[in-house]
Amino acid sequence: MADTTYPSDAYPFDIGACPSPAYVVDDALLRRNLELLKEVQVRSGAKILLALKGFAMWDTFPLVSQYLVGTTSSGQDEARLGAETFGGEVHVYSPAFTEPEMDVVLRYADHISFNSPGQWRHFRDKVASAPRTVSCGLRVNPEHSTGEVAIYDPCARGSRLGTRAVHVNAEVLDGLDGLHFHTLCQQNSDALEATLAAFEKKFGEYLPGMRWVNFGGGHHITRPDYDVERLVRLLCDFKARYPHLEVYLEPGEAIALNTGYLVCSVLDIVDNDGPIAILDTSATAHMPDVLEMPYRPEIIGAGMPSEKSHAYRLGGMTCLAGDVIGDYSFDRPLEIGDRLVFTDMAHYTMVKTTTFNGIRLPSICRVDETSREVRTVKTFGYVDYMQRLS
């Protein structure tokens, strides 16, 4: 049985040093992203938060917290995780909070963004009586779509996310310190520029009375073709117009973009109008964005279906018929036991995994930025599956 499908020196780390399957985050690549994000903060005066919904590998937080000011979460458990393992500022937003959840959130949050005036009215007194001071804001909907994938468009017609301008006035904003918009998904700074113009047109009259504005996430700042200069200019110009406002950005992907891998192995090869390799991982359970977005992840050493000599369809090990990752080609035939390495598998992977079919979650590993040694941070077994159920 083979160990790899590609020369070992083509891999950025020893792929045999981790379990299979495993997510592997490279500290050197992570620090590279963080250095750029720090530069943006220094040059623009804006503050960048880590969105835990995208990347919550808390073993890396001692490193990440050296560069970012805090975390933003989607509810009580993420808020607690951010407070206890990251530190700094804790921001929270949810489309709706329950009473028990708000009791927990108020123990940890520094900022809370409410989705609607109704939620703000409902919890206003509870926030005021909390043992710690919490700054509250309202998420608004600029009603300006820039994305191409409908499932990720918060400004789509009929969206439940954010309050439209027609429902906002001075009375609604009484007692609130900030406005929050989130409209982008894996986009460049030109999309932010267009959104910011729509936001100011609809809500600019209220900004003099605010203390902060949150530009949300979806900013692909660390992508190679991202226009960082435009971003810095937009942020600086905005702060020049509203010097009293604190500005926040809260990307999840930009922190971990192109920093991680998913190492997996070939379990079997079957044929149905062509060879199909069954892997010890799964699109639906371990990389659901492959099906939701959808997209075709890259594999080190592999090509497009007809690019190289040996083509395969790669499928997962669940019973879902559509658990198919995609079609790839290789320089040589795949063999049972071969390891494959998917790239860009740090964000929206570990945070979205499931144990569907009882499939075990991939292990989590890190590559030391200096020694290049692989360390297994966490493995998962039966108890992790069993404790999700009752």
From TrEMBL:
A single Gene Ontology CC term: cytoplasm
Cofactor(s) essential for the protein: pyridoxal 5'-phosphate
The protein's Enzyme Commission number: 4.1.1.96
Subcellular location: Cytoplasm
Enzyme class, UniProt record, top EC level: lyase
Main location: cytoplasm
InterPro entries named in the record: Ala_racemase/Decarboxylase_C, De-COase2_C, Nsp_de-COase, PLP-binding_barrel
Keywords: Cytoplasm, Decarboxylase, Lyase, Polyamine biosynthesis, Pyridoxal phosphate, Spermidine biosynthesis
MF terms in GO: diaminopimelate decarboxylase activity
Signal sequence region: none
Domain of life: Bacteria
Cited CDD domains: PLPDE_III_CANSDC (cd06829)
Sequence ranges assigned to domain Orn/DAP/Arg decarboxylase 2 C-terminal in this UniProt record: 65-345
Binding site residues for substrate: 253, 289
GO biological process, one term: nor-spermidine biosynthetic process
Reaction catalysis annotation: carboxynorspermidine + H(+) = norspermidine + CO2; carboxyspermidine + H(+) = spermidine + CO2
PANTHER family membership: CARBOXYNORSPERMIDINE_CARBOXYSPERMIDINE DECARBOXYLASE (PTHR43727:SF1), DIAMINOPIMELATE DECARBOXYLASE (PTHR43727)
Its job: Catalyzes the decarboxylation of carboxynorspermidine and carboxyspermidine.
Quaternary assembly: Homodimer.
Family classification: Belongs to the Orn/Lys/Arg decarboxylase class-II family. NspC subfamily.
Protein name per Swiss-Prot or TrEMBL: Carboxynorspermidine/carboxyspermidine decarboxylase
Taxon lineage: Bacteria, Pseudomonadati, Pseudomonadota, Gammaproteobacteria, Oceanospirillales
